[in-house]
Amino acid sequence: MKIQHTFNDEHNHDFHESKRHIEKRTLIVVLLTIATMAVEITAGTMFHSMALLADGWHMGTHATALGISLMAYVLARRHSLDKRYAFGTWKIEILGAYTSALILGIVGLSLVVASIDRLMNPQAIDYTLAIIVAVAGLLVNIVSAFIMSAGSTHKHSSHSESSHSPHTHHDLNLRSAYLHVVADAATSVLAIAALIGGLMFGWIWLDPMAGLVGAVMIARWTVSLLRDSSAILLDREMDSPLVERIRTAIEVDSNSKVNDLHLWRVSDARYACIVSVCSTVPHSVERYRKTLSGFKEITHLTIETHWHEEGT
Question: H or E element: which one contains 141?
């Protein structure tokens, strides 16, 4: 029996370093969000607008979540060469995405409670000034969304996925930050629509109803993000098409058979793999390592080989 381990810590470090541009973009969005939050909370309080006040507080919680996403990038990069992390620091970013999803869910629940309270206890709203502030908030959200989306389309030519991979690279930490910005934009649009309806038709109930609709939208995004990030944190990956691709690549040689195979994601599109191969011909472990070298998604690989004569 022979065992070979292949680790690529330098690649992990370089990959995290390549995300510095995302760190910078996220920092800009955090600062914009905090500034807009302060304006909207102040204006919402002064003008008695539930939609505007809720949007401001949402921005505060989103700023916190964005800060978590930013910190995840920084920590993953700074500790990328720390040998105490057995499979690298990829999952720091995933943990950041999961935490941001939880915060997004709390935002949705708080919005439900606040909106129901305002339905039961309506207040007079200074619609004109509230609309002006809401529009300004929406513009900031649009700019922030553009900044984040530009970060997601940045190309890493030296770290791109292999052409045969069925997976496209998705940065869940970036996605969580982007969803917080989109949620802000959505609640801003709803707030503006509700305020205009109240101004033109006197429908004061539109203001809290906009909050409830926004909560439903946020809930859907929360569930999606929690599902994707928790799957990585819990190593649920054995239904991935990559499993069969690895098995097929090894068993192309009729003398080789995969006895055991474990695959799990350590990041959005990077995997660790342990494979045990039984062969009727004494192939070297290096042969199987070369067979799997084309799978660029695999950043940690452990191969165990067993040989026995056919018929024994």
Answer: helix 127-152
Give the single-character DSSP code of 267.
S
Say if residues 52 and 40 touch (Cβ distance below 8 Å).
yes
Q: What is the pLDDT of residues 259-299, one digit of tens each?
A: 899 988 876 677 888 999 988 887 788 888 888 888 888 88
In 119-270, beta strands by DSSP E: 256-265
> Residue 75, SS3?
helix
Q: How many CB atoms lie within 10 A of CB 122?
A: 13
Rounded to 5 degrees, φ, ψ at 146 are -65, -40
Torsion of CA 34, 20, 95, 219, to 10 degrees: 50
Reply yes or no on domain 241-307 having CATH 3.30.70.1350.
yes
pLDDT digits (tens, 9 = 90+) for 71-88: 888 888 777 777 777 667
Cβ atoms < 10 Å from Cβ of 307: 14
Q: What is the mean pLDDT of residues 220-242?
A: 82
Q: What is the distance between the alpha carbons of residues 149 and 20, in angstroms, rounded to a whole number?
A: 15
Predicted local confidence at residue 18, as pLDDT: 59
Which CATH number describes the domain made up of 9-233?
Answer: 1.20.1510.10
Q: How far apart are CA 79 and CA 95, in angstroms?
A: 15
108 vs 122: CA distance, rounded Å: 20
Cα 51 to Cα 66: distance, rounded to the nearest angstrom: 22
Backbone angles phi, psi at 275, to 5 degrees: -135, 135
Where exactly are the structural domains of the chain? 9-233, 241-307
Alpha carbon distance 119, 216 (integer Å): 17
Largest CA distance in the chain: 87
Given the structure tokens 């513009």, which residue do they identify? Answer: 139
Work out the average pLDDT over 188-194: 83
Question: Cα separation of 146 and 139, whole Å?
Answer: 11
Q: How far apart are CA 250 and CA 260, in angstroms?
A: 12
